[in-house]
Amino acid sequence: MDTAYGDFAEFYDRLMEDAPYEQWMTFFEQAMARYDLVPRHIADLGCGTGTIAIPLFEQGYKVTGVDLSEEMLARAQEKVGQYSPRIRFLCQDLRELYLPEPCDVAISFCDTLNYILEEDDLLDVFTRVKQTLRPGGLFVFDMHSSYKLREKLGNNVFYEVEDDVSYLWQSSFDPETNTVEYDVTFFSLVDEEESLYRRFREVHVQRAYEVDVLKSLLVRAGFDTVEVYADFRFDVPEKTSERYFFVAK
Predict the structure, then answer these.
(1) DSSP assignment of 197-247, as one string?
(2) In terms of CATH, what superfamily is 147-207?
(3) pTM value > 0.90
């Protein structure tokens, strides 16, 4: 079994082509306007292969991308190409986050923080983020809701078959821990003439938290105000909301 987002990094962008990256970008832009903030330096936490960090850089922002996976960061750096002092990638555990300089906004999209499985660890992440922000800065992030893990992702099977890579994604929900385990098996083409494929497997676990718990942790971490929205809109979350969006100042 490989480390999460190890070999997967090679195929991540292709298998995530349908992810709503434009909606994340739009929510970010609308949040900046709504909260009257014009950032210069943005930290993208859990940046993966840079699919959000790089467009922000191309728009003129200074960007620091942080991720735990060296393989994902290597892909991100490849996509940037030529060195620029306005974008850098750091391999760090978010529980030990440290930026060389403070940022105006920290973002964490694509349910990155659902991978933090303990409240104490999540508090450590929030505290570290708060310490990296300049006064008046914003922390904008999203997380899957319990409804999404339980009703949409848990106890399900997903698959995709392409000529050179296929995957089988089996998920199971644990109501006692409010977690979903994703057991993903990949088959990647090694030799087309011989029809040889390499098989590898990754296991990922995500946990959902209730809104009140998350708000309490953010306040304990030192944030002054916390607003919660849902599903890429500035709407009040409902019982069937699938993705919560937080703006902490």
Answers:
(1) EEEEEEEEEEE---HHHHHHHHHHTT-S-EEEEETTBS----TT--EEEEE
(2) S-adenosyl-L-methionine-dependent methyltransferases (2.20.25.110)
(3) yes
